[in-house]
Write a structure and sequence with these properties.
By secondary structure, the chain is of the alpha+beta class. It has eleven helices and 19 strands. The protein has three domains: 117 residues, Translation, Eukaryotic Peptide Chain Release Factor Subunit 1, Chain A (2-Layer Sandwich); 150 residues, Nucleotidyltransferase, domain 5; 107 residues, 60s Ribosomal Protein L30, Chain: A (2-Layer Sandwich), CATH 3.30.1330. Strands 1-4-3-2-5 form a five-stranded mixed β-sheet, with helices on one face. Helix 2 packs antiparallel against helix 4, helix 7 crosses helix 8 and helix 10 runs parallel beside helix 11. The two termini are 45 Å apart.
Length: 404
């Protein structure tokens, strides 16, 4: 299976990464560089992570040859010159029996490799939770640009061919009574399709109609690229923004906008204006859930083990977990654990409650219990926030609120 390379973390991404898989799952995170000689460091770092993953796989009982085969696709990436010339600030790689996925992302991850029965996704939550991921759609008759962004970074999304790139080469117009027809014709610029309209009439008569049709085509073309839960900031002249608001099917178009002619505006120049427009939405979920935790009384949870139990039972409406900290251990759903905190098939403790073994260092078979709390909460409809440890409200490693 070929390596799948992606650049945006959406709800669909998380659903795919957190679904149950057969066999071990390898998760790798590392910082990368966009330019210069530093890009060469990436292949060295990846080599170290691959070696660590192989050691963990073999330590868990896998034959060395089988481990090498599982890691074969990611090993090939280490020597792929083109791959290292197209990076962001961080790289996340997920390897399992169903293939290898790579994500070039705007976060400089710490180096980490985790081998477990599921993928380790906690470092990805800041790109999805709290509305941190949003989009910017720069509208212009001359060029359509879609950008992804978070609070710190912005980057352009490569538009597929079914998204019309501009209205600049619209040379012919249909009579409004006969309906306008739009089709892709000719590759221009970034290998995208330019909108071409056929018919007759004058530009003055048909301008508003063809502009609306153009924007509807843009909206339809980008719909599958957008996470429906992520905000969309519009940019451009006032009339185009107003018309796109009327025709779009995206449910989270931000009230504020980046107004003006953006044809020559670079992404870095757009970024602070887009963040300012979306700031209230970025802050709202975390502020709401932190306030809910502070006022939850007996429904507030700070202890790790209480959080594990509640998350597994689908009882958490929200949870705030720390980045950069791991709680290695494992959960035995049948309640079996030995006196040293290891799962023991002979020692039943409480068949009504899963036993949790917590270890100071990673051991074969361990997962990050904090990661499990997050994924279990999200899978059952709760909200997850991953923040720096000092931002966790309350006395414990987590701040969670029970549904009941």
């Amino acid at each position: 299976m070929e390596v799948e390379q992606l650049d945006i973390i959406t709800s669909s991404t998380m659903k795919s990464l957190t679904r149950t898989r057969e066999g071990p799952c390898v998760s790798m995170y590392m910082p990368t560089h966009r330019f210069g000689r530093e890009t060469r460091q990436g292949r060295v770092r990846l080599g170290h992570l691959i070696a660590g993953a192989r050691e963990a796989l073999v330590g868990s009982g896998m034959r060395g040859r089988t481990a090498d085969a599982l890691l074969g696709e990611v090993t090939a990436l280490a020597g792929n010159d083109d791959f290292w010339q197209h990076q962001e600030d961080g790289l996340a790689i997920f390897v399992a029996s169903d293939g290898t996925r790579t994500y070039r992302l705007p976060v400089a991850f710490d180096e980490l490799v985790v081998v477990a029965d599921s993928f380790h996704v906690k470092p990805l939550w800041p790109l999805l939770s709290d509305g941190e991921l949003f989009y910017v759609l720069a509208l212009s008759r001359n060029e359509i640009r879609l950008l992804w962004a978070n609070r710190f970074q912005i980057g352009e999304v490569d538009l597929p061919e079914d998204v019309p790139a501009s209205l600049a080469q619209a040379l012919w117009y249909d009579d409004p009574e006969r309906q306008l027809q739009l089709h892709g014709s000719g590759r221009v610029g970034r290998d995208r399709v330019v909108a071409t309209f056929h018919g007759h009439g004058t530009p003055d008569e048909n301008d508003e109609a063809r502009l609306e049709l153009f924007l509807r085509a843009v909206d339809g073309g980008i719909r599958h690229l957008l996470d429906p839960d992520s905000p969309l900031v519009l940019g451009g002249v006032v009339e185009m923004i107003a018309m796109f608001r009327r025709v779009t099917g995206h449910q989270r178009v931000v009230e504020g906008a980046v107004s003006g002619n953006l044809d020559l505006a670079k992404p870095d120049a757009l970024h602070p204006r887009a963040v300012a427009a979306v700031e209230p939405l970025l802050q709202r979920p975390f502020v709401e859930d932190a306030a809910a935790f502070a006022s939850a009384g007996e429904r507030a949870i700070s202890a790790l083990l209480d959080g594990v139990s509640a998350a597994r039972n689908g009882r958490l409406s929200s949870v705030i977990i720390p980045l950069g900290i791991h709680a290695w251990g494992r959960v035995d759903p049948e309640g079996r654990v030995d006196p040293e905190g290891h799962v023991d098939p002979e020692g039943h403790v409480d068949p009504e409650e899963p036993a949790v073994a917590v270890h100071e260092q990673w051991e074969p078979g361990d997962i990050d219990l904090l990661d499990m709390i997050g994924t279990s909460t999200w899978a059952t409809g709760g909200r997850v926030h991953a923040v720096e440890p000092e931002a966790i409200p309350g006395p414990g490693p987590i701040a969670a609120v029970l549904r009941y």
